Amino acid sequence: MSKVAFITGATRGIGKQIAITLAENGYDICLNYRKENDELNNTKKEIENNNVKCLTVQGDVSSFDDCKKMCDEIIAEFGKIDVLVNNAGITKDTLLMRMSKEDFESVIDVNLTGTFNVTKNVVPFMMKARSGKIINISSVVGVAGNAGQTNYAASKAGIIGFTKSLAKEIGSRNIQVNAVAPGFIETQMTEVLSDSVKEEISKNIPLKRMGTTTDVANLVKFLASDDSSYITGQVINVDGGMVM
Ligand code: NAD
User: Fold this and answer.
1) Angstrom distance (rounded) from CA 217 to CA 223
2) Which domains are delineated in the chain?
3) Cα angle value 110/113/115 (rounded, 5°)
4) In principle, which of 5, 146, 200, 201 could form an S-S bond with 27, CB 3.0–4.6 Å?
5) E strand or H helix at 42, and its extent?
6) Ligand 1 pocket member 9 (CB < 6 A)
7) Residue 192 carries which DSSP code?
8) Residue 1: Cβ within 10 Å count
């Protein structure tokens, strides 16, 4: 029986590559999306090209009710969730002096509360199964901080505290919880940066380049696999050595 992986925010960027990489490795995929569009349909096709099942589940991770509904749909279809990847995330960058309360709260709501909402609904099924892998996508910014990102860095640092606490709570049930902290990865989220800013950032990265979505997906593949069965509560950077 194939393993089932649930990935949030998976129609594009890092989430899409994680879904495709896991599909290439034989996982059935539950793909969360917010709005139906071409990106969703193309990603679903790419996943199904690997002869695995792809269930699409609509929902906003900042809504607890949506997360419960998505989880119920997955259990009705597959009866289990082996791997959860909390990937959905947003940025609303600006200096604190200019940041509105709404800018702060919306980023926390999606990135941090969203991770809680999904995980809270998935964990009971993993507890019953006495196995599971939870992989939370944080950021090196949650470790090192970044000017202009107090909201985002707080949400990503919160994910790290959440990861370590949950790892301690449910390790005895054979469930591993880890965080992945990407550095600068080429996606639509970082496309907004000018070429000169990207060059400047790359200069300060020991490996002298931005990362690819595949760089991140390969680490998630390892954490999802049995090869990582003695690793829990860790934050692993995928950042070309940017933060040490
Ligand atoms: P992206 O903007 O390309 O993708 C984000 C995805 O999340 C999109 O599919 C979007 O629809 C989805 N999403 C946003 N809000 C949602 C909500 N409320 N409910 C459900 N889905 C929602 O960004 P990305 O670069 O692929 O980022 C993926 C993850 O990696 C994010 O958590 C991001 O913070 C993290 N990250 C990215 C980088 C980077 O350099 N790109 C670095 C560190 C961490």
Assistant:
1) 10
2) 4-238 (3.40.50.720)
3) 85
4) 5
5) helix 38-48
6) yes
7) T
8) 8
Confidence (pLDDT) at 26 = 98
The pLDDT, as a whole number, for residue 108 is 99
Residue nearest ligand 1's atom 12 by CA: 9
Distance CA 236, CA 149 (A): 21
Distance between CA 82 and CA 93 in Å, rounded? 34
DSSP per position, 145-159: --TT-HHHHHHHHHH
From the CB of 106, is ligand 1 less than 6 Å away?
A: no
> Which of helix, strand or coil describes residue 65?
helix
Give yes or no: 27 in active site. no
CA–CA separation, 82 and 27 (whole Å):
9
Question: In 3D, which of 166, 176, 198 has the Cα closest to residue 185?
Answer: 198
Distance CA 48, CA 123 (A): 27
Identity of residue 163: T
Distance 88 CA to ligand 1 centre (A): 5
pLDDT lower than 50: segments of the chain: none
CA–CA distance, 222 with 21 (Å, rounded to integer): 11
Ligand 1 pocket, residue 185 CB under 6 Å: yes
CA atoms of 106 and 123, how far apart (whole Å): 24
Cα-trace Rg, the chain: 17
Query: Measuring from atom 27 of ligand 1, which residue has the nearest CA?
Result: 14
Q: What is the pLDDT of residues 39-89, one digit of tens each?
A: 999 999 999 999 999 999 999 999 999 999 999 999 999 999 999 999 999
